[in-house]
Amino acid sequence: MANTPTEPSINLEAMIAEAAYYKAEKRNFYPGHEIRDWLEAKMEWNFSVLLFSWVYVATYFNNKTHIIYLFIRYKHLIISFY
Length: 82
Description:
Elements lengths: L11 H15 L7 H27 L3 H18 L1
Helix pairs in contact: 1-2, 2-3
C-alpha cells in the first residue's frame, strides 16, 4: 500500500475562538460583546482564507496582474484586520 499524503488537520473553530479571545482581551473582557467578537473573528478568518485562495489561484496561473489588483482592491480590508 502506497503512502498517500494527508492534509493537515485544521480546527477552524478553535482558531476563531482564539481570535475572539484576543478581541475580548483588547477591550479588557468587558461583558456583552462575546457574539460580536466571535462574528468579527469568523469574518476575518473567512476573508483571510478567501484572499489566500485568490492569491493562490492567481499565482498558480502566473497572473501577477490579478495579485496586484486584489491587493489594491482589498488593501483597506487587509490593513484593518492586521
